[in-house]
């Protein structure tokens, strides 16, 4: 097994992309620490079926004390974190001059500040063990903007900047830090945006098609498994000189 003996912490892994990445890493032999607000029993069953050790911790990543408790739990249960996948993320869509201040603060805390905190808490152990992988799930919105997504786009651009700095600060070590930048992936986060369009009177199938047609030339969704397999590559020896990169998996979104 490629990742046997390694422990991966995947934040926000009770649904969507995080759950898909956790599944692929577990199948490759990694022990997994899940996190997120969704149903832990379902996620534990799905990721646990490959026979590696899997635990869940419910830390709210918007709260630094809970985030530190998550790393204490990782240390006690697994002896540390070898692979950190900063995946948890939230969205809110509104024009910037109507953007609720509380939503701005929450999105910056979960989508950007938590990436900093998890990175600072994971790095000392990775340095001590002489190996590590940090994979930040950013977005195409880390490289381009879209109307209505001020906080999300600002946070994701920040994640890519942070990824470059951590990639440089670890450049002479066996620790790498990279970002992956998905286009549309059909997860609860995106389903909500389709549902909002449908609630405004658009046929749900048409709403899904319109969402893709506006941005994603392939007219097909990226899947959590695609992103899991890319994460697995970044964890491999072949990925060891990919450093500080922002890797698009976007059906051609950013080629336009
Ligand atoms: P999702 O809503 O399915 O999953 C988000 C996960 O984060 C859930 O497990 C949720 O419980 C958890 N979470 C939310 N707030 C949290 C908090 N405060 N503390 C701990 N966990 C929390 O969303 P997704 O689409 O799978 O998104 C995952 C990541 O991928 C996000 O960073 C998102 O920005 C990014 N992304 C998604 C898409 C897409 O099209 N779905 C595209 C590009 C990037």
From TrEMBL:
Pfam families in alphabetical order: adh_short (PF00106)
SUPFAM superfamilies: NAD(P)-binding Rossmann-fold domains
UniProt record similarity statement: Belongs to the short-chain dehydrogenases/reductases (SDR) family.
NCBIfam families to which the protein is assigned, alphabetical: PHB_DH (TIGR01963), PRK12429.1 (NF009093)
Designated name of the protein: 3-hydroxybutyrate dehydrogenase
Species annotation: Pseudomonas ulcerans
Gene of this entry: hbdH
